[in-house]
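Help! Submission page says 'invalid entity' but I think these are all valid:
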Amino acid sequence: MPTVAKVWIEEDCITCDACQDILPEVFEVTDDTSYIKADVREDGSFDRNIGFSSIKNEFRAEYSELIEEAADACPVEIIKFEYEGGVAEAVAEEVAPAAEVAAVPVAVADVGSDAGVLAGVLSGDRSLAIFFGSQTGNAAGLAEKTAKLAVAYGLEPTVIDMDAYDQSKFASHKRILIITSTWGEGEMPDNAEELWNATSASNPSLSGVHYSVCAIGDSSYDEFCKAGEDWDEKFAALGATRIVAMKMCDVDFDEPWSQWVAEVLPRIACVDSTGVFHEDLVEAMTAYGAGDEDDGADEGDFSPPSILHAPISLTMRIFRYDPIMAQSGYDTIAVALPGHATIEDALVAVKREADGSLTFRSGNIAGMNPLTGVKANGRIVPADTTRICDLVGNGSTLTVEPVPGYEVLKDLMVSYDRYDIARVDSKPWLEADPRQGERLASGAPMGVMNSADATSLHALADVGSLQLINAMSDTYDVDNVYSGPGIALQRWVRSQDPRSGDSHVKKMFGLMQGKGGVWDEADISSINRHGIDGSQAADSLYAARARLLAEFKFSGKSGRLVKAYSRSVKMSGNVNETTLYRSVLGPLGLGSNIMNGVSLRMMLGFTRNGGPLMRGFQGMLVPPAGIGKIPNMFNGKVANHHQVVAIFNELDRRF
Amino acid sequence: MVKYSYYPGNVARQSSREVEDTIQPLCNSLGIELIEIVGYNGDGGNIIKQGNKELQLALNARNLALAEMNGHEIITACASAQGILHDSLETFQNDPIALANANRVLERTTGMTLDSSEISTNHLLHVLVDEIGLDKVEAAVVNPLDLDIACYYGPHMQMKGACGGDDPWNPDYMERLITALGGRPVEYKSKTSSVGNPSLLSLGDSVMKMTARVLNDAKKAGAQILVSACTQSHSNLDSYQGKAGRVANKDTNIPVVNFTEIVAFALGHFTDRFAQLKTRAMMIGS
């Protein structure tokens, strides 16, 4: 279990004492807010710890679970913490504004049988303003929950604290939900009082607004839910259209709130971008939001699969780089969004709702853009077509970084100049053989190819983005000379193209075999694991290497390695590393290993971590000595060794 | 005792005898019986595959067929071997033409054929976590590790289906195991990055830079030692670490041990070697 390394208190503590009751050694509730105690902190301060001082090591294991419990118990969810290693459990607001929480600002394309019916109402502005008036945090919590549910109806909700809100902006919204408690004897909660007074004084026209109110209170008071009633009547009086009657909730507010949400969301979602309510679409919208719309199976043989996925909440860590200040780091933001939203959807939402300076490459509606790639939790993927739900689950952290191997221009945006330059240099386009091809009207030669050849040729590099294939290689970002596997694929395809002229094929082989070519890839398995595209690229790279070995007769170190390794296995059934080292490195290489300490490390026992020292010297003393890689150089032949030899003879007599 | 067909990989019985030294007693301590695959051959290391893909597949078909005859699932302690065996098996299970071709060769040369539908391949790490259980491992600890440990997985087995129930992209099985063994796992970002082992002998600086990246990341994260689940990559990480540091101009000085060694040490085997390791870790520091 990871242990909590940092804990801090955000604003809006309601001083309910819950955290102090659970863990008084860490939390102390003052008149205004909860504090993190000095004794457990590295900096020894006594405050909310918004400077993110670490918890002293000796307390971490003991208090970790109780801190998590306190955070869970906090009714307003303002206790935040971070695990050791920097993994944020509930980090927020490095970029999100404090008052307006960017809850679920993502709109996603709609697919399903109701999508056609609802297409009109689901297009354009889908914003939903959810205001809360809250004294103890209950209304704020319900507003957050409402926002998360609203996404399923294609809405883009924003949760807004009534405190300091400008009443003149009410009219800019087409869809408004109000969730408010009542304080004292029918009074507004503290954070709503000023807005109520200002609205009552100015009486702005709200004729274009559809709204509904959820009021929570205590029926033992005479003025039960009075604040909610006031807002409901005020909005109606100002010309707004009540879309669902006000819901009054007693102290057990969960069930009535659920009823209200189930009724109000599909109805307010049927208000289109011009402010017109389509009552005839409510039934379809209800089914759409519930995700159980008719799949159309009885309308034909083909049933399109649903791509909708349940909403998920996650923490996004987004790499940031400022080229002017030459500074980099990560922004962390808590977001909730539909699971079927793409990475790009999430980035667009963050840019729109939290930080307009965030920079990344955007796709387009035509399909995958090969340049939108990002590194998402270690995977190289196109941001515009990769769904969040395919990468992480609910409550997870999604780290988004620029793809490796390319120069970062700003934040997630990289320059693909390196790729473009290598591509231009290698000229992997068609140069037909004039003797065999057809001729264009201009007289220029044009190659010919049948459909079967075209299909197999296409399959050799059937990947979404050659630029991203480069980024999948763990070698590409440490070797500036390497043109990358994406370029190698193009050269390989052209060399196999029956339309290519002989001289062009030779040129492609030369480029693949030479410096920066296909042998510069140190480990194809680092590409192979990147899904279908990576696997396809790896297959083609292996095929290209096999062809080059035949073409260039196992020349060069890489060729010698393949030949010596294969012969080693054929001769004994296993790898004889001593012969391998000697055959591939040669006298100079072995001498280099002695000079640079590699052989010394082996012989003095570092590799065997205390194993018998004699083993280390065997490599020096017993023929065929490798001087650089050690025992057991005389590994005997495996049982039934003749079977291994027979397999080699059956399939490849070159070894 | 739970039984597995043991595939030592390409180097455990050659240059990395310490793996063979330690896997036997540790499995004994945890109730795992290693059944020898008599006459197993090298898996090709994805190097033979560069010259002839069908040849490497046929060699692995022989190993798989031998294990089928044993009647037990395969276990190995090398991530590279696990990746290659899994890759071959997956090819045979999904491509009947490849299986038929391999069986044609296999039958002519060995008299055996491969069924492939029942066999599976496993790395020891995933067997310990998924099958044996960390609670049982923890109960068997004799010498708690008490070290800050970085775990290296490499890329070879970090693919869906090849790494048990672990996450291929953000694995934590080894970290959980280290915790159960009384150590303190250290998180660092390149634990699944390649160190370029297949090209160790044929490429120069780039392999050294890839090796240095892993070692330096682990070191910067505060690790005292690095544990490798890949016996092949261990050669880069340990023997070549001085050269890698010089080429990349990075601090790479950190003790590196094989995965089987650290488990065996915690279970009370080779106390002298464990003492040496702790001394080295203490002297080098994080």
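Support: the input was valid. A stray whitespace character was the problem, and the output above is from the cleaned input. DSSP finds 21 helices and 20 strands in chain A.
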